[in-house]
């Protein structure tokens, strides 16, 4: 099939899911911003997504451990982005969206791992209990730790989606009796970490597109893709404007932007938090917490629940 026909088939599938070509281009524009690129690069991003969608869709096994399913909901509740994601991957197992349950679901998981061993992408949502042989978290009479050790090492790549999977998140907050940890710390496998509570689905889409197009994904020392986590929330915050408090300027500098009224004195953790929330935004690119008037709580940082609280006091 020629490239033109493959692209048309992709757009036809999106149309069938209620995503118009115009909608697709809108999200590619947002994706361009989330990757830290200028808008002039939107055409290249469109071609990259088209190329990824035209490639054989990689099988994905999506595991849930200690979590609230908010990471899945983040992309499922952004239906157009969710549709694009589901057009670029083949979800073989996902407890939230699959019809199967009980023994049938467990068989689906086992069969998928055996069929695609060494070829599937494993997306992990939630942290893993490690104390008492993983006794603080179980599915089908197997601990999270046992499931993780038996499945994740067989993956071609592992994406830790959300702060819980990346670093332990809320389940790992003190005193952490279950010994909850992020995937890498729990079982020692390399991961691409997409922290956030929840993470922005655009960052998941960008990671998938880069992976399918065999682009190198540059990571920081915490395993986060630099295209999304290279700058602090403060760096791109639209609320900064002539904020000239001496102590603040001495530590963080001053910047100019549209809205003004920095929330740092209200406890905003933006200067300490690496994420692209100000450019990617949530709810179809509508807003993000600071734009809505709420200080950043640092949810994409390791140990944020212990190190960033109380959220309404200056650091």
UniProtKB/TrEMBL annotation:
Its cofactor is [4Fe-4S] cluster; [3Fe-4S] cluster. GO terms for molecular function: 3 iron, 4 sulfur cluster binding; 4 iron, 4 sulfur cluster binding; cytochrome-c3 hydrogenase activity; electron transfer activity; ferredoxin hydrogenase activity; metal ion binding. Residues 68-210 form the NADH:ubiquinone oxidoreductase-like 20kDa subunit domain. [4Fe-4S] cluster 1 binds at residues 68, 71, 164, 197. The lineage of its organism: Bacteria, Pseudomonadati, Thermodesulfobacteriota, Desulfobacteria, Desulfobacterales. It comes from the Bacteria. Heterodimer of a large and a small subunit. This is Periplasmic (NiFe) hydrogenase small subunit. It is found in: Periplasm.
